[in-house]
User: Fold polynucleotide adenylyltransferase from Brassica carinata.
Amino acid sequence: MLSELPEVTELHSVPDAYVPLMGFKLNGVSIGLLYAKLPLWIIPEDLDISQDSILQNADEQTVRSLNGCRVTDQIFRLVPNIQSFRTTLRRIRFWAKKRGVYCNVSGFLGGINWALLVARICQLYPNALPNMLVSRFFRVYTQWHWPNPILLCSIDDEGSSSLDNVSASTLRIMTGEFQRGKDLCAAMEAKEADQWDTLFEPFEFFEAYKNYLQINISASNVEDLKKW
Assistant:
């Protein structure tokens, strides 16, 4: 069991989450393990979750869990160059975390959301190298007319949005960061300066605002505190 492994810490389950998962740290790396319940006696090792039949008779939580993996697999099939996509996505995710706009539960974007945005840029510029894809990422999404959808392929139905948590205020913050990224990349393309370090500078949250709200959380035991 995971709890018996010395490498595993902060093990906890979130069964009532929108997507049920088990969270823990493995050698200090945070991991979210999704849970899916299938009406099968035996799960074959070569189970293909890309087949729509896998969703038959599945409850909503299981569908959401499976769709996370299904969407990831589909993205890899739709991008023209997987290596360029991966490299660009790593840079954009690093940038988003540094700039404080990487958190789905806080109204920004999570991992799959950033992957979808990067994948669309890879489709628009199939021959571009990662440095250029990063620049085009900021240029395109600075000019994007939100809430127009970002589609990687045609869909048969209305589908569903992966950005339900985004609000008007968090969208304004993200578009401001897109504009900042666009300006810095434009300066680099014009060879005015090497701005890569500046692009990835952390957002100084506690220097950006005049007022702050502090919430203190306490629990009667360690296990309850971990759930927070």
Remarks:
- The longest strand covers residues 8-14.
